[in-house]
Amino acid sequence: MKNACQNSAFPPASMPSVLASPARIKFWGTRGSIAVPGSGTLRFGGNTTCVEVRADGEMIVLDAGSGIRPLGVALDNEFGTQPIKLSLLITHAHWDHIQGLPFFRPAYNGKNEIRILGFDGAGAGFKEIMAEPMRAPFFPIAMRELSGKIDISRLSEMTFSLGKVQVHAIFVNHPGVCAGYRLLTSAGSIAFLPDHEPYEFFLHSARGNKMSPEQAKKTAADGHEALVQFLHGSDILILDAQYTDEEYQRHIGWGHASVSSAVALALDAEVHRLLLFHHDPGHDDQMASTDCSAFAAGNIVPKFLPRCLVV
Ligand SMILES: [Zn+2]
Ligand SMILES: [Zn+2]
């Protein structure tokens, strides 16, 4: 995609490209909820969530929305007969974050090693979450029938390593169980929170209904503070900014953020660069690209804007 923060030059095919590559991020799917291909989404793309990170000899894929299909095609072309080794980190089980996996070509080749990691969901184990969408009658090929070396790992720790990349996890404010990740690479840290609603407006909590208003307020404040600490000083924050502020008023409790609340969180956490992500399927390129300038017109945090990008 043209808008990706990426190094476009691949090394020659005979080289171990992941080891040779400088650190990079490439966006293969930036859309929330459902894929929206068409002339209105050519710039920011119509595919759902999928981000590729290469750093410290590791290839880490963040979520398996429909954007993972073109990633798979590109990896096949890049690696040819060489094995592809990657880790796929899943934030949560909503369709827009897993629906592309059955169409990820490297999973169908025995030379490739794919480790899939994530947390158990609400009422479903992680292995079940990943296998269920590929079960009949939903899909003709079962997960166990994939030819690639697929290892599905249920996460139980909030800190773990993928090679030299240390990963921190946190549960965010979204319906069900949803994780955010922070990757600590030698080139800087990348935080990935594709789906998150600001705690101050709505609390997604299994205990929420049983709380008094005071307890809910404290839980929300504690959640926000923990998230600010988790994100603090990140070099890059890829963050849910699905709605305009006006739209958000009609979608409180849907699990997503507005542009201004995304910027407010980034400011609280003193991140270096905020990337607005998980665009609403109703937003075309023009609307997505004017999100920042519309925010500037509000004159709330004008100094921040040069480092605030739509991806
Ligand atoms: Zn989503
Ligand atoms: Zn979600």
In short:
By secondary structure, the chain is an alpha/beta fold. It contains eight helices and 13 strands. β3, α2 and β4 form a beta-alpha-beta unit.
Features:
8 helices, 23% helix, Metallo-beta-lactamase, Chain A, alpha/beta, seven-stranded mixed β-sheet, 13 strands, 311 residues
Layout of helices and strands:
Blueprint (H helix, E strand, L loop, with lengths): L16 H4 L3 E6 L20 E6 L2 E5 L5 H12 L5 E5 L5 H4 L14 E6 L7 H6 L17 E6 L4 E4 L2 E7 L7 E7 L2 E6 L19 H19 L4 E5 L4 H4 L10 H10 L5 E4 L7 H13 L10 E3 L1
Parallel strand pairs: 3-4, 4-5, 5-6, 10-11, 11-12, 12-13
Antiparallel strand pairs: 1-2, 2-3, 7-8, 8-9, 9-10
Bound molecules: zinc ion (2 copies).
The site of one zinc ion has 5 residues, from loops.
Note down, in words, how this protein is organized.
- It is globular and about 55 Å long.
- The chain is of the alpha/beta class and 311 residues long.
- Helix content is 23%, strand content 23%.
- The longest helix is centred in the last third of the chain and has 19 residues, at 213-231.
- It has helices at residues 17-20, 68-79, 95-98, 126-131, 213-231, 245-248, 259-268, 285-297; strands at residues 24-29, 50-55, 58-62, 85-89, 113-118, 149-154, 159-162, 165-171, 179-185, 188-193, 236-240, 274-277, 308-310.
- It has one domain (4-310): Ribonuclease Z/Hydroxyacylglutathione hydrolase-like (Metallo-beta-lactamase, Chain A, 4-Layer Sandwich).
- The strands form two sheets. Strands 7-8-9-10-11-12-13 form a seven-stranded mixed beta sheet, covered by helices on one side. A six-stranded mixed beta sheet has the order 1-2-3-4-5-6.
- The protein is built from eight helices and 13 strands.
- It starts with 16 loop residues before the first helix and ends with a strand.
- The relative contact order is 0.12.
- The protein binds zinc ion (ZN) (2 copies).
